[in-house]
Amino acid sequence: DLINALMVVSSNDAAISIAEFYGYPKFIEKMNERAQKLHMVQTNFSEPTGLSVLNQSSADDLKRLALFIYRNYPEIFLISQKPNVPWHEYTTGKPRTIRNINRYAGDASFLGGKTGYITDSRQNLISFFARGGRAYVVVILGATDRYAVVDNVLRWFTYEFPREITAQR
Hints:
41% of the residues lie in helices and 23% in strands. The protein has six helices and five strands; from the N terminus they run H-H-H-H-H-E-E-E-E-E-H. The chain has a three-stranded antiparallel beta sheet with strand order 3-4-5, sandwiched between helices. The chain has a two-stranded antiparallel ribbon with strand order 1-2. The longest helix has 15 residues.
């Protein structure tokens, strides 16, 4: 449920809960260790949500991380493809559904992704799409309208690769 909430509605509470379960300081340490192993040389994590301006990264580093997750933990991005995911309300015991905040969720060419926003860095989006028989990762940072930017990139894909073939997942 926490991973669902993290990937579908970008829940900061879910990120904190996961870190606290693991051990907050150790979790941050492991995030930074993983970044170093992935050669994310412009990345430093100070907390797990992405809300702090002390968290720093680059588009290239985020691409490295996204590709690592996509290749090694594809179930993470499979969650983010869904327009809705189940959620269990543990206080009441009632099942619920949470709606994906990513506009591309449910689109046949969308292979998954993650949204992000803080005032200092504005709108951010990492997305995988299938176009022209290939999978592409699109990393948008600092946008005022991340979806407009991605729509422009997708129009370019359509122009450049007019015969869209869904990529194998």
